[in-house]
Design brief:
Length: about 210
Amino acid sequence: MPDEGDLRAPGPRDHWDEVWDRADPDRVSWFEQRPEVSLRLIETSGVGREAAVIDVGGGSSLFTRQLLEAGFQDLTVLDISSSGLAAARQRLGPRASEVEWVEADVRRLEPSRTWDLWHDRAVFHFLTEAEDRAAYRQALNGAVNPQGHVILATFGPEGPTRCSGLDVRRYSEDGLSEELGPGFSLSDSCLELHTTPGGTTQQFLYTLFRRLV
């Protein structure tokens, strides 16, 4: 029986290790060759190349490589899975040493530093329990600088209801705004139809929030 302090979604660490251990990083459903929407929203945020950026649930995404190539110098990747982080480091090769790697459950994150921009593509929608979302918000509030930015990408109103064998929640702009609360102001948003490597289409909602002072 799990300890009462255990949190549930997005699934235990061994679930995600198993996903990454058996997956081709270029064939997972969330893979995208170039994260165009995320990169556009970073430009919209106005943060400079010196900004501290954390990619939550980064796995083996090519997002970090794109930021390095764009000249960003203070990058952190957080993931619950050691296998996902290993795949990410392997992708980057020698440039992996330019990134801070954090193996942690974001719901239990007690950050020793803060960041100017928090990027999460496809973690938050796995948090189906209210207590998990509250723990995520607590971590986010402790991690984002005043006037910092949050890019949050989840399945949209017409997105899937399950992913990687787990239930997910779908969101609208209003729904995400309510989740983050009055301390964050929505700056931009858009819907994207993401085509998976397997050829199916998933609706994503991308949002850019600014933290209020």
